[in-house]
Amino acid sequence: MAIIPAYHYPQQGKLVVLGAGESGVGTAVLAQKKGFDVWVSDVGRIADQYKKQLEEAQLAYEEGQHSEAQILAADLVIKSPGIPNTAPIVQQLKDRGIPVIAEIEFAAQYTDAKLICITGSNGKSTTTMLTWHILRQGGLNVGLAGNIGRSFALQVANEQYDYYVLELSSFMLDDMEHFRADIAVLLNITPDHLDRYDHKLENYVDSKFRIIRNQRPEDHFIYCLDDPITKAGLERHQPAAMTLPFSLTEKVVPGAYLDEKNELVINVPQQELFTMDINELSLQGKHNIYNNMASGLVAKVQELRNASMKESMGSFKNIPHRLEFVACIAGVNYINDSKATNVNAVWYALESLAPQIVLIMGGVDKGNDYEMLRDLVRTKVRAIVCIGKDNSRIYDSLEDDARIIVNSSSMRDAVEIASHLAQKGDTVLLSPACASFDWFKNFEDRGNQFKEAVMDL
């Protein structure tokens, strides 16, 4: 165990956890092991699996409310990233000077492991999984956590990993003050969650750049040189770490780039030069070349052998709900991209697939700007089938470019309509561009309902 000296949070006393999901319950278990008097509060209903964990650990909890007196008596509060800093209970805590931090920052105090942290508007789950796969196949003792997999805090409590690959959302980064990433990866920045950032892109950019906060010259910052918002953000956020950019359009040394032979080249100081034909990558499409560049740079910083990297990058299977092949029925391919919850993710999906596409999209609009999809819709999309309660913005933006655009009454209805519109050789793509909570529990539920409907055709 290593308490990082820069951290000045209480190391004993009453600790309150707000939110009893994966991160909250894991935090409670770790805090109990470290000697805190732990109490868990969730304003909603706690899922049975987490309630069972809390009861087995004999941890006190409440559900369906936040008892202010109990919470405001805390010495330290760990909150779920889903609870905004503007929430009244959080404001009351801060007004009283009670520290409110995230699970990731709390758990990082109690591990000596090297922390490899990945963020971005799109591709972070795929890149996190790919990085973990490459490092694990390369023989490193590595855990997977953050916005994916099991709770980081729970793993710190019960495991002994030398490395962690952490997927970090902007909401997680917002709650970090003293946390330091040994390797920080910023894949891209596109407008997303702007409702949480006063509808100001610069606020969201500042949130993403918190990933380089507290880095030192011996650390590494990996980023996409081709992303204009990231490049603009670098003018305001100067990294202290060694920078390793990646690009499809420029030869960057040190860094990663695409050469004239369509080979991915990774050049890291004092490491053997890595090259790989992009056609040998298991993940295809322009966006996945970027993902492989980022993961490959992490692997090279960790001094992995070229042969091991090539085997891993050629064998990796993508995560569920991210351009996931479901079935080929009557010559039509069905692809589940339910994790595409913003417009840029849909652009990547359309860009990576051949025409003709029947696109299933819609849901809870987050202030989306669909303009960037117009050219791809015009050239690649046979029809759009809308899901969700209100798709007026999709109609307003894309009606002139889509040959056919229709509504549906359920996921099953959408899949049936799409199957009738599609022709042999087409692809039916679920890539919503929107949040899921009007018709579905979450994006996993949406993707699973799509897969079930496809298999029932």
Automatic annotation (TrEMBL):
Keywords: ATP-binding, Cell cycle, Cell division, Cell shape, Cell wall biogenesis/degradation, Cytoplasm, Ligase, Nucleotide-binding, Peptidoglycan synthesis. InterPro entries: Mur-like_cat_sf, Mur_ligase_C, Mur_ligase_C_dom_sf, Mur_ligase_cen, MurD. The keyword 4Fe-4S does not apply. ATP binds at G120, S121, N122, G123, K124, S125, T126. One of its GO terms (cellular component) is cytoplasm. Pathway: Cell wall biogenesis; peptidoglycan biosynthesis. It comes from the Bacteria. It catalyses: UDP-N-acetyl-alpha-D-muramoyl-L-alanine + D-glutamate + ATP = UDP-N-acetyl-alpha-D-muramoyl-L-alanyl-D-glutamate + ADP + phosphate + H(+). Its main location: cytoplasm. GO terms for biological process: cell division; cell wall organization; peptidoglycan biosynthetic process; regulation of cell shape. Its EC number is 6.3.2.9. One of its GO terms (molecular function) is UDP-N-acetylmuramoylalanine-D-glutamate ligase activity. SUPFAM superfamilies: MurCD N-terminal domain, MurD-like peptide ligases, catalytic domain, MurD-like peptide ligases, peptide-binding domain. It holds the Pfam family MurD-like_N. It is found in: Cytoplasm. It is an enzyme of class 6 (ligase). The keyword Repeat does not apply. Residues 118-298 form the Mur ligase central domain. Residues 321-434 form the Mur ligase C-terminal domain. Cell wall formation. Catalyzes the addition of glutamate to the nucleotide precursor UDP-N-acetylmuramoyl-L-alanine (UMA). Belongs to the MurCDEF family. This is UDP-N-acetylmuramoylalanine--D-glutamate ligase.
